[in-house]
Specification:
heterodimer; A: alpha+beta; 8-stranded antiparallel sheet; 8-stranded antiparallel barrel; about 25% helix; globular; B: alpha/beta; 2-enoyl-CoA Hydratase, Chain A, domain 1; 8-stranded mixed sheet; 7-stranded mixed sheet; about 40% helix; elongated; ClpP/crotonase-like_dom_sf (chain B); propionyl-CoA carboxylase activity (chain B); ligase (chain B); AccD/PCCB (chain B)
Chain lengths: ~775, ~550
Amino acid sequence: MAGLWVGTAALVAAGRRGRWPPQQLMLSSVLRTLKHVPHYSRQHLMVSRNLGSVGYDPNEKTFDKILIANRGEIACRVIKTCKKMGIKTVAIHSDVDASSVHVKMADEAVCVGPAPTSKSYLNVDAIMEAIKKTRAQAVHPGYGFLSENKEFARCLAAEDVIFIGPDTHAIQAMGDKIESKLLAKKAEVNTIPGFDGVVKDAEEAVRIAREIGYPVMIKASAGGGGKGMRIAWDDEETRDGFRLSSQEAASSFGDDRLLIEKFIDNPRHIEIQVLGDKHGNALWLNERECSIQRRNQKVVEEAPSIFLDAETRRAMGEQAVALARAVKYSSAGTVEFLVDSKKNFYFLEMNTRLQVTTTMHTKKVTTSGALIVGSVTVPSPKQRQHTGRGWQMSPKQRQHAGRGTSPAPVLSDCTEPKAEADDFPVTQLLILKVLGIIRFNLTCADLYFKDCASFPLNFQDPYKSFGLPSIGRLSQYQEPLHLPGVRVDSGIQPGSDISIYYDPMISKLITYGCDRTEALERMADALDNYVIRGVTHNIALLREVIINSRFVKGDISTKFLSDVYPDGFKGHMLTKSEKNQLLAIASSLFVAFQLRAQHFQENSRMPIIKPDIANWELSIKLHDKVHTVVASNSGSAFLVEVDGSKLNVTSTWNLALPLLSVSVDGTQRTVQCLSREAGGNMSIQFLGTVYKVNILTKLAAELNKFMLEKVTEDTSSVLRSPMPGVVVAVSVKPGDTVAEGQEICVIEAMKMQNSMTAGKTGTVKSVHCQAGDTVGEGDLLVELE
Amino acid sequence: MAAALRVAAAGARLGVLASGLRAATRGLCSQATSVNERIENKRRNALLGGGQRRIDAQHKRGKLTARERISLLLDPGSFVESDMFVEHRCADFGMAADKNKFPGDSVVTGRGRINGRLVYIFSRAQWLTLVISALREAEDFTVFGGSLSGAHAQKICKIMDQAITVGAPVIGLNDSGGARIQEGVESLAGYADIFLRNVTASGVIPQISLIMGPCAGGAVYSPALTDFTFMVKDTSYLFITGPDVVKSVTNEDVTQEELGGAKTHTTMSGVAHRAFENDVDALCNLRDFFNYLPLSNQDSAPVRECHDPSDRLVPELDTIVPLESTKAYNMVDIIHSVVDEREFFEIMPNYAKNIIVGFARMNGRTVGIVGNQPKVASGCLDINSSVKGARFVRFCDAFNIPLITFVDVPGFLPGTAQEYGGIIRHGAKLLYAFAEATVPKVTVITRKAYGGAYDVMSSKHLCGDTNYAWPTAEIAVMGAKGAVEIIFKGHENVEAAQAEYIEKFANPFPAAVRGFVDDIIQPSSTRARICCDLDVLASKKVQRPWRKHANIPL
């Protein structure tokens, strides 16, 4: 059994301030150290003190071949690093992933089963078989899937295959919520204060509340779904709350027992990266703030947190280290904390694996820029006896860890540092997860979707408009790597299929700059220059979050999305000048297309007589409002008059490129024309959001007034699949009477179950699906009378 | 009996005379007005069509008038009208009354330009429809007759004749019923005159029909003879006889929409090639479509300015064909990736969806695309898809538009329905069309090319100019399973035999070693290769032995 912590390497300054090359794989460090370690050997940590000397010693011994028990972005990162280090790689894949990027990158690939994860990526037997067949010496689990699976770790140990990750007992201890909380308490880590017993009466409640400190949360012992829950800010409220909650609990659950715990108001989610070795050494490596979440999934991360001060940071770091020591943690891990508005922090949980977003940490580096790369292999008991020593941190690292005052050195997973670490500027970076999401089609108001796993059907569900995964084929895909300070971790390429079976994550987009403002500006730019076609995605939301004034100020919490978008995310709200810019760009594009349509290779038999139009009078419809535009052009420059104000629009007007850089009155904008129809409809991605405009000439617009509104299909009596997926269960049969809102069937897509409900009360006429069917978007599921 | 007939005929002549007299009297009354004023009046009336009331009524139905349609379709200011002063010559049934006479009769004809290129156009108005509608709300044109008068037909014939002599396409915007019953046989003659022009012009100039209203009876055959028939959703119908006659003859209850609406004709009957949302959408799309067409068979396919590099690599194509040969993929994705700027004007997108046909551009030049669609019925060829493909291929061949064929075909669809329906003769049409075509032909076999269908789909053997295979190509008489059942009948180790067959045939080599494909190419290089080939093939010339005309198995 072996463990290996997933190291992170130093963030690099690339000569010029604030202009660093996209960072490479974080895992290099880990695997590099593996080179040092004969795989029968024990533990090892290598510390490089010079950023410039990150390159590993080619004479180091390393694994010959490892198997990566994962897919997508993380598998690609591991393989890339292995390639650099000369380690052969084995990818595993399911049927549907046969031609995916990680499979192509790896030296060998083994199919471990059909598409469902339970039959492939979680199929321990098949993976063990693959290990035997390929004679891989170690397994890197990545994150998710088997990374925290004890059984798998045990199987590997039995075969003497090294598991690159923490050892089993740490996985186990931290995997259990109760045990981890107890352990944390014992290690004197702040946990959410509360009274573990049952509160007898109102006066006792007040006493306990005072002990804990306001605000407190009074909740039913048997509770759930917000019922019997009250927040109290003073004694009076506690008394009232106790009375009301116990009544509610009694009526709702037939059990009036109440608990009290500290109410964390507007908590932030901040996590500390820790590293531990086998000798009880552990150190912490700064924080990442991951407060912006959607369904408990991190959407935006940044480091350093704008909120923490040095003191809090150190306190958190020290507690994180204490916890790591308490569980004898010997790998890389993350300790998650909730932090309230007064900078009180409470332990949430510890992730004993590589994080999706463990990408970088930043901090002003005052030291000579120690770079930590290291690995730990935990020997089997027998081996341990044999060697009697384990991985040990360097004095320098211990110094950091021990001292705790100066947070650990900057870490990143760059493998190609190019600059000296001295004079390292304060850095800021931002990590966004680009997810594939599906839009919630509000026109079929009779279908609601809910995520059964985490949310009850709720009209106030702020996520409903951006909560569903989208699948499809990436018809066009282009990462914004041409921009400075941008890194993209992805496991996809043009033509990749985003299937219903796996995580809908498209990529991780990371930008960094010499300060937060620069990092944010670069992020906005990167999002504008990111081409993703064929699947819907959440770029609009991400771009909106990072320009939101609350976010810019740093006023965020885990409730940010629901607070800021109480009615669901509707896209960017255009200011008047932005709207004029959009209209000017759209009309210039329209005219450019029209002019191009007249450019034929001269046909000698019959001359072409181009219409001579000096001023294009157009009518543009945006959000049901019609705007009058007059555009005229000379060469590539357009003068556009939008609702009375004049704008100059210039561009190359290359109509084939997915990205179009346009200058409007000197302001540079990158827009994407996603679709264009002859009937005047055009979709333009502008400031992250896709706007649908309809552009007609003045004459066509006048005549268009006579066109009749199309009658849309009455969708209340038919239930169609809102997305492609697999039917998990059908709860009705023909002849059944269903009430409005009643569940009719459940569709699973991307590990999410979506309950399909009846749009009206009626009798089931016919059922067109059965459990196990694969359905496409818009497929008829059930018809009502 | 004969005497009675003669008497009747004499009576009719008298009637004509009488109406002539009435007309003369009217002429005398208006003697005072000067010719110029009369011209002005006539022009004004002609421009008003059936009058403001009728224009409003037309708008109320979500439809545009004949002139509005023309103004939207053509470049601004380019329309040159002809025959504005023509009036119908019918005197019966009160038709001679002034209120039933309109300058220009019920059709606006002339010429104009679309994106600078010449086109002849006729826009059949709806005035009589309105007269009739006023009498009865229902719109059954077979019962009430229609509005094609002799004068009307004459106008259409005139511009068609001109279009043929000049060599420019004709676009007909149709919004009128069948024959004008009041005119009797003269109306029928008018139809035939138009039919004759349609046939004469066929293969000489592109002819496009846009159905923008009801079109019934004999009137439907003119669109049917043209190269492309487009419809407007919800407001246009095409049928031989309306629902009332259907009810009385076959006792079927059917609505106009079900019987001959845009959906019926674009999904079930295959009569129409595409449907658009409304008049404005249809006319805008028609402008777009017109840009793909050459003006006549004397012109080569038009080349429009193109921003998409001809040597662009398309990496996404390298993974598009699934490894399992049973798994479907969308051929339209391949087409979009290969052509200029992902612009593809699909013809008959909702009919016989197992074959895809349509226009696109490669390095600016219009090309006709034919592709099997593995997503629908595995991309097999059946009766409907063969006919759909054949007609498209013949159009491209007639008008010098190069053909690009993407092949993934498991064969012809078996079964009694197909055999009884005549798959043999219908399938032969596609075979015939590809074999007959002398335009540049480039073929890309993406995956399956089995059996006779392989031959049919623009194979090397039918004079394909350049035939490529992707590494995923499987060119064989049939799939492994079927083949093994025949070859190794009775053998025990079927699996081994299948594996052997797959090893031998489920790859592009058997065809490549025989020169039946010119090269095995990386999918990502497909666009670059095709663009390069088309440049070379632009000067392709093929001589065929003289014949009056070929005899396609109709």
